[in-house]
Amino acid sequence: TSLLCLSRKNDSTRSSFGIQLEVPGVYSEHGKSAFSYYRLNVYTFGRNNPMNGLTDVLFSMAACDQLALGVAAVFGPSHSSSVSAVQSICNALEVPHIQTRWKHPSVDNKDSFYINLYPDYASISRAVLDIVQFYKWKAVTVVYEDATGLIRLQELIKAPSRYSIKIKIRQLPMGSKDARPLLKEMKKGKEFCVIFDCSYQTAADVLKQCFDFRSLDI
């Protein structure tokens, strides 16, 4: 279960009309970078410490408490189950919800009051292909952690039909942090240009193991 942090004292900013707008931010335990970025983009900061360890139910109650104060919008969180609870409340009360997480493109989204700051899957996919073309890689191995990675990399995966790029697709071992057998197999196959799509926690583990295989261009 992910820990949740709720900014108990709202960060606020004053509009050009002289009205103070309250925009509470809600972040998961791993959303520290988003929390810092958010704090830098408002003019006045709340000073209370965030509350940790809230369940989704308690978090929803806390979000309602914040919305009762007349806030202009809600920022975050990034955790999937929590963001759904917050979005449901924002929809009901017609309060804008600022999201910062990746959304699956096939989800039937009936949410009205939200804006997503996370790049859409098509933009990410094209950006990855642009990087490969910039470095003029002719053979690339794509290593993904879960099925969503294939969506984010679909432009690159479709590249062989349009460009002279050879693509090999592999998946990280499920239920294990040990990627060394996979790295050994890639090194044996002379797969030196590799793109990983995984969480930052997994990326940290993989990069540490990659130090033993310095010939990989990751």
TrEMBL record:
InterPro entries per record: ANF_lig-bd_rcpt (IPR001828), Peripla_BP_I (IPR028082)
Subcellular location, record wording: Membrane
Pfam families in the record: ANF_receptor
Key words of the record: Membrane, Transmembrane, Transmembrane helix
GO cellular component: membrane
Gene3D superfamilies to which the protein is assigned, alphabetical: 3.40.50.2300
Record-given protein name: Receptor ligand binding region domain-containing protein
Signal peptide (from-to): none
Keyword Cytoplasm part of the UniProt annotation: no
Receptor ligand binding region domain location: 56-209
Entry keyword annotation includes Phosphoprotein: no
Taxonomic source organism: Sinocyclocheilus grahami (Dianchi golden-line fish)
